[in-house]
Structure formats: structure tokens, C-alpha cells
């Protein structure tokens, strides 16, 4: 099978970690029967400064017509609003209909407090439809409003995605892959006690989608939890969670916060997933403070490459990558400075390739 992968390094350390991702994919054993073809694509603030656009039309065209998946590094955002600049990854999620943002947060096997959860965030609506306006009223003065949109369709499909992920994790467990959870559980996050219509609809729709799909998810339990108590419990007892599904805003906040549970942003991967396409993307940004020094942790990107492969139905290849990365982390000898080590990006990558 030939997989055509678009590579979008972006800015800063994106340009250091995405080449590491490419080398990892190239190093996968040929016995897996996968070949890769790579295309380098531009996006980001540097691209904007060169060409006047942050996301060139060619990048979108090539991804849509000539790629099966992609890896995205990180992009810098200007600190002040710059005319004509908007985030390329946000635009890509829209243009490719990548409606789910999937973020696994997993501790090393040897961790005192094991964590193995995945946050599935709805990626297309909620307050992020950005329907905002500023008004002036003779009585209250200047005020601003934003619209929160929750649809049955978007909520059902994110529920379905959470169910598929929970079931996939359950299958891995049943096949003997060690896990801290005995069984699969999806927790729906919401605030329907206050926002009974919008969040109420989200909760109801996710429940409905999971119960409709019950015949394939018969081993997946379903719970729900109010977002504030969720934040509390996520920090007190993170080991309790398996799959968390959330509307856009809560999912954004919870997923960044959950990344703090495992020590470094440089470890946490994500995937932007649609029915036709997946973009793997490390959770971190362009890290201007360390860019150009060759010390960025490549692991978030390597895990993002594995996650991309999972959604391309190449679970075996993904499992090999996860095992090689975990072995590096358990041994804890070759680590980049964010984990307290002194190794370079190159040295960590080579160690993982050797294990692969
Ligand atoms: P950041 O994630 O770039 O960096 C935060 C801290 O974590 C820094 O100290 C950095 O050195 C460290 N760090 C991040 N990734 C690392 C890695 N792989 N290895 C070792 N250390 C790592 O977030 P920050 O500083 O808030 O933002 C920098 C730029 O990145 C901004 O322009 C921001 O807009 C952009 N950004 C882009 C994102 C994206 O493309 N999805 C996400 C977050 C921020
Ligand atoms: Mg965020």
C-alpha cells in the first residue's frame, strides 16, 4: 500500500520535528507493506511574510487531491493582529472537514501515577463559530455577544467518533496490549445544568449516537460529567478516564490542561480527523525560545505520526511506533532538555529508530 503524506512543517521547531516524523515513517519495517510518498507543503507565518498568504492554495489543493494524510508541525501567530493573517491549521480543519480533534494523553509505563486517556473534541462549532458582535445600548453601555451553536449532526458524529475510538482501545486491550483500564468508557463533558438547550442537546445527541451504535460498541460504558467537576477530577484522578468527548470550547481547555499531566508539551500528540482525511499534529506551538537549537523533543510529532496511521487503518505500524517511543521513555537515558535530559532532537530520534 502506498500512502501519500503531505508534510507541513510551518514555523520554528515545526521545521525540526516534522523532518524527524518523516524519517520515522521511512524507517518503518518493510514487512508492514506500507510505502510512503512525501510532499513538502508550505503554511505559516514565515510563508505569510514571503508570499502574503498563510495558507497557499497549492497546499490545500495538494492535500485534497494528492495526499492520503498529512503531518503538520506548528505555526507562529503574530502577537498583534496582522491584516490578512489567520491561522492555517484552523482553515485546514474547515477546508478538509476535520471535525474531530483527538488528543491521547498517556504517561510512561513506569509512571507512579499512570494515565491513559484520550480527549475527543468537536472541532467545528460551539462558540468557535466566531459569530461575535459588539453593540452599544443606552442602558448597559457597550457590550459584546457571541453565539454558541450546537447541532445534532455535529454532536452525533463526534459521539460516533468517540465510540469508534473507545472500541478500538477495547480491542487492543482484548488482544493483550497492557492497559490501566479494565474496560472501555466514554465520558461526555457538558454544562447542561446551566446551558440546558445547547449543552443539553450535545449530551443527548452524543448519548443517542452511542446507543444507536450499541451493536458495535456493546462493551463501551457511557457516563457524563459536568465540565467544572470534570476539570477537578481530571487532575485528582486522571487514571479514572478512558475516552472523554467534549464540545469545542471545553475540549480545547481540557485537552491543553490534560497535556500538563504528563510532564512536557513535547510528548503530547494530536490528530485532526475527518471521514476522509487525517492530519497528525503535535500539541505544542513553534517554541521560538528553543527554535534553531536542535533540542526540540520530537516525540509529540512521532506519536502524531502514529496517530495519523491509526486513522488510516494502519494500527500495526502505529503500535510499533508507540512501543519504540515508550521504550525510549521508560529507559529515560536519551531525553531532550524539556524532560530534564541533554540529548538533541537527532539523538532521541536515532534512539527511537534503533528501537523500531
Ligand atoms: P509553545 O508550545 O510553542 O511553547 C511553550 C513552551 O514549551 C516553551 O517553553 C517551549 O520551549 C516548550 N516546548 C514546546 N514544544 C516543545 C518541544 N517539542 N520540545 C521541547 N520543548 C517544547 O507555546 P507558546 O510559546 O505559547 O507559543 C509559541 C508560538 O507558537 C506562538 O506564536 C503561538 O501562537 C504558536 N502556537 C501554535 C500552535 C499550533 O501551531 N498549533 C499551538 C500553540 C502555540
Ligand atoms: Mg488549544
Structure overview:
This protein is an alpha/beta fold. It has two domains: 1-98 and 274-356, Isopropylmalate Dehydrogenase; 99-265, Isopropylmalate Dehydrogenase. Helices cover 39% and strands 20% of the residues. It contains eleven helices and twelve strands. The chain has a ten-stranded mixed beta sheet with strand order 2-1-3-12-11-4-5-10-8-9, with helices on both faces. Helix 1 runs parallel beside helix 11 (345-355), helix 9 (299-311) packs antiparallel against helix 10 (315-331) and helix 10 crosses helix 11. It is globular, with a radius of gyration of 20 Å. Bound molecules: 1,4-dihydronicotinamide adenine dinucleotide and magnesium ion.
Keywords:
356 residues; alpha/beta; Isopropylmalate Dehydrogenase; 2 domains; 10-stranded mixed beta sheet; two-stranded antiparallel sheet; 11 helices; 12 strands; 39% helix; binds 1,4-dihydronicotinamide adenine dinucleotide; binds magnesium ion
If you average the pLDDT, what whole number results?
A: 94
Rounded to the nearest angstrom, the radius of gyration is 20 Å
| Overall outline | globular
**Strand content bin:** 15-25%
DSSP summary, beta strand count: 12
Oligomer: single chain
GO molecular function: homoisocitrate dehydrogenase activity; isocitrate dehydrogenase (NAD+) activity; magnesium ion binding; NAD binding
Family: Belongs to the isocitrate and isopropylmalate dehydrogenases family.
Cofactor: Mg(2+)
Protein name: homoisocitrate dehydrogenase
Structure summary:
The chain is α/β, with parallel strands linked by helices. Helix content is 39%, strand content 20%.
Amino acid at each position: 500500500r502506498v500512502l501519500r503524506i503531505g508534510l507541513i512543517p510551518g514555523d520554528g521547531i515545526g521545521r525540526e520535528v516534522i523532518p524527524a516524523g518523516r524519517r520515522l515513517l521511512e524507517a518503518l519495517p518493510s514487512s508492514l507493506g506500507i510505502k510512503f510518498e512525501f510532499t513538502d507543503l508550505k503554511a505559516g507565518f514565515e510563508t505569510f511574510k514571503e508570499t502574503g498568504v498563510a495558507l497557499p492554495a497549492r497546499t490545500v489543493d495538494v492535500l485534497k487531491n494528492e495526499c492520503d494524510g498529512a503531518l503538520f508541525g506548528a505555526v507562529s501567530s503574530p502577537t498583534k493582529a496582522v491584516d490578512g493573517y489567520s491561522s492555517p491549521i484552523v482553515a485546514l480543519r474547515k477546508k478538509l472537514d476535520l471535525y474531530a480533534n483527538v488528543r491521547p494523553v498517556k504517561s510512561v509505563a513506569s509512571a507512579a501515577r499512570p494515565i491513559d486517556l484520550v480527549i475527543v473534541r468537536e472541532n467545528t462549532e460551539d462558540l468557535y463559530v466566531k459569530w461575535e458582535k459588539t453593540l452599544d445600548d443606552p442602558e448597559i453601555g457597550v457590550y459584546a455577544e457571541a453565539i454558541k451553536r450546537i447541532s445534532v449532526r455535529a454532536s452525533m458524529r463526534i459521539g460516533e467518533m468517540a465510540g469508534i475510538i473507545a472500541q478500538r482501545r477495547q480491542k487492543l486491550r482484548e488482544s493483550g496490549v497492557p492497559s490501566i483500564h479494565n474496560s472501555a468508557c466514554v465520558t461526555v463533558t457538558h454544562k447542561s445544568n446551566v446551558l440546558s438547550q445547547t449543552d443539553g442537546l450535545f449530551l443527548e445527541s452524543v448519548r443517542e449516537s452511542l446507543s444507536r451504535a450499541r451493536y458495535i460498541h456493546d462493551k463501551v460504558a457511557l457516563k457524563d460529567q459536568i465540565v467544572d467537576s470534570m476539570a477537578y477530577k481530571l487532575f485528582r484522578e486522571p487514571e479514572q478516564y478512558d475516552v472523554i468527548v467534549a464540545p469545542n470550547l471545553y475540549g480545547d481547555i481540557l485537552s491543553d490542561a490534560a497535556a500538563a499531566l504528563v510532564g512536557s508539551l513535547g510528548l503530547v500528540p494530536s490528530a485532526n480527523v475527518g471521514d476522509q482525511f487525517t492530519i497528525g499534529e503535535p500539541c505544542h506551538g513553534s517554541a521560538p525560545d528553543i527554535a534553531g537549537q536542535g533540542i526540540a523533543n520530537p516525540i509529540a510529532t512521532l506519536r502524531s505520526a502514529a496517530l495519523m496511521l491509526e486513522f488510516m487503518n494502519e494500527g500495526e505500524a502505529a503500535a510499533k511506533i508507540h512501543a519504540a517511543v515508550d521504550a525510549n521513555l521508560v529507559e529515560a537515558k536519551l531525553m531532550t532538555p524539556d524532560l530534564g535530559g541533554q540529548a538533541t532532537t537527532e539523538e532521541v530520534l536515532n534512539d527511537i529508530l534503533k528501537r523500531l
